[in-house]
């Protein structure tokens, strides 16, 4: 497939952005179920899809073979095309079966996929029907994890956006809402820091339990924990919430900037802010410094995959001295990245979208020390002698906050250390 490319200027960052529209190499949004089902502990994700979707989930979730999974695939076969009524009946039967077997489930998501026989099913309608049938014990919602024109992290965005209409309305009193899946250990750390700052009450979306959905309203201030939540942020804003612009909590600098955005909104005095954050920031800087020898001065190339590329490039360049050559991102959400873009090194090429062959040509020509990319591209690049880091690992691993900053640096140091060991 041939692609198109345009070069335009990025307002706030003033750096030119290469926009490419061509063939892309990405995982689909179903992948998000892996980390979403770990976080919402009484939710079940029923993928309405094909055998391909079932296989994708099996291989993506392979590491979790010993856990009792709270996701499954209802396979809609081609033969179901003859009668959508039959497919709906089948869906009702499968949902009934799942809920009978799992009385602990309080929320069930019907997750749409991209095969044509699934697209013909109206899953929102099916969810409303099933919701009525299983209320009040279980809520049934629908969202799409479809692989067409999405990135794998957009599954989380679609899921959280589907939760927003279910959130209770809040009074006008100010409250902080942190949107985006954070590992429990990170969520607990953040909650302690907000408590010490006197920022709150604080709610997290998604919550750990389906019935603990935080409230939202005109008093809600939203801090995004992830940069891929465009739909969720839009849905929250439509309910009166206001987004607090901030860098993302990756690394010491990013975490301090993220906490500061909330502290300023709550009028926390600067001295108090320093008192609460200084130790954590110091700890993070010390942990990061342990990986500087390996990473400083090394070149870096991001292929667009997770939408975490821009905050990661900022962290690796500013706190570890790495040299990003190209920072590819599937989508560039200017408003959500406004605090990040000015912090990127000016000589790095920022690219949005993908034309995979052209981008791989640029990557091969640059011979970066480390390439951050999707699973599908990592093996061929490794075979060509390039060290790679799978971007999906960055979504499965707790990386946000002060106490994870050293682990985040280590994730990038590891492939270089391994390669050095192999070539000795
Ligand atoms: S949703 Fe589409 S892209 Fe994703 S696994 Fe199913 S068929 Fe493949």
From TrEMBL:
<keyword id="KW-0560">Oxidoreductase</keyword>
<comment type="pathway">
    <text>Porphyrin-containing compound metabolism; bacteriochlorophyll biosynthesis (light-independent).</text>
</comment>
<keyword id="KW-0067">ATP-binding</keyword>
<dbReference type="GO" id="GO:0046872">
    <property type="term" value="F:metal ion binding"/>
</dbReference>
<dbReference type="GO" id="GO:0019685">
    <property type="term" value="P:photosynthesis, dark reaction"/>
</dbReference>
<dbReference type="GO" id="GO:0036070">
    <property type="term" value="P:light-independent bacteriochlorophyll biosynthetic process"/>
</dbReference>
<feature type="domain" description="Nitrogenase/oxidoreductase component 1">
    <location>
        <begin position="28"/>
        <end position="413"/>
    </location>
</feature>
<keyword id="KW-0602">Photosynthesis</keyword>
<comment type="function">
    <text>Component of the dark-operative protochlorophyllide reductase (DPOR) that uses Mg-ATP and reduced ferredoxin to reduce ring D of protochlorophyllide (Pchlide) to form chlorophyllide a (Chlide). This reaction is light-independent. The NB-protein (BchN-BchB) is the catalytic component of the complex.</text>
</comment>
<feature type="binding site">
    <location>
        <position position="53"/>
    </location>
    <ligand>
        <name>[4Fe-4S] cluster</name>
    </ligand>
</feature>
<keyword id="KW-0411">Iron-sulfur</keyword>
<dbReference type="GO" id="GO:0016636">
    <property type="term" value="F:oxidoreductase activity, acting on the CH-CH group of donors, iron-sulfur protein as acceptor"/>
</dbReference>
<dbReference type="Pfam" id="PF00148">
    <property type="entry name" value="Oxidored_nitro"/>
</dbReference>
<dbReference type="GO" id="GO:0051539">
    <property type="term" value="F:4 iron, 4 sulfur cluster binding"/>
</dbReference>
<comment type="similarity">
    <text>Belongs to the BchN/ChlN family.</text>
</comment>
<keyword id="KW-0004">4Fe-4S</keyword>
<dbReference type="InterPro" id="IPR000510">
    <property type="entry name" value="Nase/OxRdtase_comp1"/>
</dbReference>
<dbReference type="InterPro" id="IPR005970">
    <property type="entry name" value="Protochl_reductN"/>
</dbReference>
<keyword id="KW-0077">Bacteriochlorophyll biosynthesis</keyword>
<dbReference type="GO" id="GO:0005524">
    <property type="term" value="F:ATP binding"/>
</dbReference>
<protein>
    <recommendedName>
        <fullName>Light-independent protochlorophyllide reductase subunit N</fullName>
        <ecNumber>1.3.7.7</ecNumber>
    </recommendedName>
</protein>
<keyword id="KW-0408">Iron</keyword>
<feature type="binding site">
    <location>
        <position position="28"/>
    </location>
    <ligand>
        <name>[4Fe-4S] cluster</name>
    </ligand>
</feature>
<feature type="binding site">
    <location>
        <position position="114"/>
    </location>
    <ligand>
        <name>[4Fe-4S] cluster</name>
    </ligand>
</feature>
<comment type="subunit">
    <text>Protochlorophyllide reductase is composed of three subunits; BchL, BchN and BchB. Forms a heterotetramer of two BchB and two BchN subunits.</text>
</comment>
<keyword id="KW-0479">Metal-binding</keyword>
<keyword id="KW-0547">Nucleotide-binding</keyword>
<dbReference type="GO" id="GO:0016730">
    <property type="term" value="F:oxidoreductase activity, acting on iron-sulfur proteins as donors"/>
</dbReference>
<dbReference type="InterPro" id="IPR050293">
    <property type="entry name" value="LIPOR_BchN/ChlN"/>
</dbReference>
<keyword id="KW-0149">Chlorophyll biosynthesis</keyword>
